[in-house]
Specification:
Helix content is 35%, strand content 14%. By secondary structure, the chain is an alpha+beta fold. The radius of gyration is 13 Å and the shape is globular.
């Protein structure tokens, strides 16, 4: 599956983080839609105050690093 424009093998028991996971870690009440886990296809809904893309990417990279360091990939 493609995650953030990168092919990633996915184990359904422990899937890698997605951009949506990063957004929700930053604000659990965020209202948005995102297509194909592509930051450039992110749309904020219901007049939600947008979170900066660099902030989202920083959080995503933190989650991805933690996942990489704790999971044996298939």
């Amino acid at each position: 599956m493609y995650i953030n424009k990168t092919w990633t093998e996915v184990n359904p028991k422990n899937p890698p983080p997605r951009l949506a996971d990063a957004i929700l870690k930053l604000n659990a009440d965020a209202k948005f839609t995102i297509i194909n886990d592509d930051i450039d296809r992110l749309e904020w809904l219901e007049s939600f105050t947008p979170i900066a893309k660099d902030t989202i990417m920083t959080k995503y990279n933190e989650l991805k690093t933690a996942w990489d360091n704790t999971w044996v990939h298939i």
